[in-house]
Amino acid sequence: MAVTEASLLRQCPLLLPQNRSKTVYEGFISAQGRDFHLKVVLPEDLQLKNARLLCSWQLRTILSGYHQIVQQRMQHSPDLMSFMMELKMLLEVALKNRQELYAPPPPPQFYSSLIEEIGTLGWDSCS
Q1: What range does the domain containing 10 cover?
Q2: Prediction pTM value
Q3: What is d(CA 92, CA 125) in angstroms, rounded to the nearest whole number?
Q4: Residue 50 maps to a domain
Q5: How many domains is the chain built from?
Q6: Do 103 and 70 touch, CB atoms closer than 8 A?
Q7: In this structure, is residue 29 part of a structural domain?
Q8: Mean pLDDT, consecutive 10-residue segments, the chain of 127 residues?
Q9: Is 22 exposed, middle or buried (0-12, 13-18, 19+ CB in 10 A)?
């Protein structure tokens, strides 16, 4: 177990045990330069399938469309470190998808030059 704890600390240095039995972990998960607060409450047998994941509202919002996947990964991950690695990868994907969804529109100059080019080619060429 000591090897797994060291690996967990190395992979998630901001997630720390909150009690001696190591059934409660609290801290942050980092993705794309941002930190998100979370708390993992494990049962006495330390099985993830019966664990509870408590998230900040920001993390909950980002992962809202991924609830089923998070639940599935909790059911099938052999230990907390494996789950945290998968959660981090999922968070990276969710953040990337959000960025693509909310990409800023092109600047006004883009539309001006587009209309100018269409005017040069002629509207009839666009069909």
Answers
A1: 1-103
A2: 0.70
A3: 42
A4: yes
A5: 1
A6: no
A7: yes
A8: 64 85 91 91 88 92 90 90 91 83 71 82 66
A9: middle
